Amino acid sequence: MTSVAFPAALGLTLLAAVAGLVLPRGPRRVTAGVLTAGGGAAAVVAGAAAMRGGDWSARLPGLLPLAGARLALDPLGGLFLAVTGAVAVCAALYGIGYTRHGGLDGRVPQTMVPVFLAAMTLVPAAASVSTFLLAWELMALASLLLVVAEHRSRDEVRAAGLWYAVMTHLGLVVILGGLAGFAAAAHSESFEGLRAAADGLPAAGRGAVFLAVFAGFASKAGIAPLHVWLPRAHPEAPSHVSALMSAAMVNLGVYGIVRVGFDLLGGGAAWWWLLVLAAGGASALYGILQAAVAGDLKRLLAYSTCENMGLVLVGVGASGLFAVSGARALSALALTAALLHIVNHAGFKTLLFLAAGSVLHGTGTRDLDALGGLRTTMPATTALFGVGALMASALPLGNGFVSEWLLLQSLIHALPSGGTLTAVTMPPAVAVVALSAGLAIATFVKAFGVGFLARPRSSAAERAREAPAPMLAGMAVAALCCVLLAISPGAVLPALARSVAVAAPGPDAVTGPVTLHLTGLAGTMSPLLIAAFLLVAVVGLLALLRVAATRRTARRRARLWDCGAGPMSARMEYTATSFAEPLQRVFDDVLAPETDLDVTPLKESAYLVNSVTYRTRVGDRIEHRLYRPVLTAAARAGEAARGLANGSVHRYVGYGFYTFTGLLIALAVIR
Amino acid sequence: MNHSTYVQLLDAACGAFLLAGVLVLWRRDLAAIVRLFALQGGALALLIAVLGVHEGDAEVVALALGIGALRALVLPWLLRRALAGGAANRETQPLVNVATSLTIAALLGLLAYAVSRPIVRLDPTPATHAVPIALTVVLIGLFVLVTRRRALSQIVGFLLMDNGITAVAFLTTSGVPLIVELGVSLDVLLAVLVLQVLTARMRAAFGDTDLDDLRELRD
Fold it and tell me: Nearest-CA distance from B38 to chain A in Å?
């Protein structure tokens, strides 16, 4: 099955790329979109087959010079392949409608989306260092071209592209360094060879490899403090590309950590996984705090990606920690939770980014303060975004809840059995997961309530129009996947067990319906039952209210109570800024917002106010503190270095002459 | 050809080769520089021919003829043609004056001897003993590039370097394959043709071929 579906996926995406390049403007958009969606579907089939145990491998010795390309799919790679494919189906369908305007139907964006997808299907299937790095770089370049697709219309796109280009290439450099060092020490560059040789390497060398590789992959996954590119690049990319990047590409960062850390290096020391856990926890908290105070809808979603990837890394780190301490079942459980969260996050983040794109398409703005009242003009988008927001907010009935619950279970269950290390690390980890879940609810209540309900706060929001059918279709597919995942995670979990077994071999911790086999405490949960119960409760409550309301006979129609101040206007509503203000106040020390209050009194009296100007801006503090000094130092060094190049050809040739003779003199002296 | 004749002929050719290179630094008349360059091309051809005859390799002798034709006749002819287009035929003011240039050339020669000692020690034959001379010519060519202002002097500096590199190649190996030498020679010919066009363009744009005028192009 895999041997047919995987080449079919690659073939279809490449065909889509050719179609995007060759066809004239008329049929280009639809042909490329449909072919890309077909490629995505084939990738889902291939990934699912690989997860069911249909291992597949291929060697293409002539494709790459010297080493040749090696491809192999195992259940772990298959999971990431299937997720990528599913996201691509939604994004490609959506893209057919979305790219109609704004110059997005040009050759470059239409070609690069399938190329990007092809690269993302190759990354989890690569089975040698050179193949992996090639696919990785292809993925980075294709996504970079897509991020800057709209650089003509907005200046921020260029800055975002620059940040992304620099960060992704720095990431590539460290990954390249780590994997090349690993391959050199192991005398083999195929993953099989690395796996076999890993045990023979000294502990310090393995630690260095893991550190380098972790830094690179964490940057791709948007883990603080290496996340700075993400909240810039994801919002500025076209929305279907944002969905692909935020729901599929970032996952591959986690894939890299799991593949290299667990599979190739075979576990390792406790400090590796403590580092992963700490980075994940910090990222989860920082990401959701920034998302809670963000005023830009897509920026909010991008920061939420940082948060969710942080939660995934908490699971991965905990899993590694348990594996080191010998608790195999717990390790498998934590990794299951992490991988399930990846699947769930991919589902709701695709839906949310696509819905945000539909808002942008309908109103022309992403500013939550200027939105509102979309319920009447964009009912379908509102409903779909509502579903996505529920899924993302880690409440029952949402798919995010299932995986976060599983994650919490694994962290809590570690306490009775673990040693000092787990006893010290697990309580803060539990607190981080719980706090981020709480803040996530506030964030998505804000995004949905302020952005879609109430009255429109700008003329752009008033004139909103509903998205065309292909866009709605893309979102509907994503929403359907989310709902299925939320109601019956039992359908996915057994399939995950094989993927988990690749990285953390041990007894199946999660089987069939979500039942845990753990020592000490037993945890059981059935999302389907919860859903049914909630449904019954809500319907019953509504019916009760109805009965209670109809018993009163006389009903009087009147204006809402408005304190006697006249009819309420849209200016009295909560805005995104005002909704987040209490949170901003509580987390003042972490966020360090820049607030600017300017009161101008009347000329006659200092007590009568003429106008009040209030400006508040929450910048990325990590970027400000960590990156700005480096950037200013680099800029200063560059400015100083301009003195070296004064335009004289003689001087330039002279540099070569002096270096050459200097080198010769050094040689003559040394030898 | 017996051994002493071979050594004498080789030394004579190398001497002429080095002398022509050093004299390029001394003369300021551009026409004279081109003549010196032609002389050096001839010396190089003689050097290679002597090596070829000594080793009894007909291919190397044929190469020597080809190199002689290119470096003593074709390239100087091209340079003369470039020279004929302009009025100013003197190197106006080199960045380093002639006396200092000659001193530096001597120092470069010393450096070349010091650096190539290991090569000579590796296989002490008359041919490898001449390697420092070829290396000196490479360094002198680079020095001409750094200090001379006229575009034509620059071309000659570049060609001096190339002559030196060719000489090193023939002195250290027992004959360079025909195809390699053919490639190198074609490369040099093309470079000179391009530089000639560039010189003409510079003259059209600035009315002069002083390279420091190019500074205006920065930013």
Answer: 24
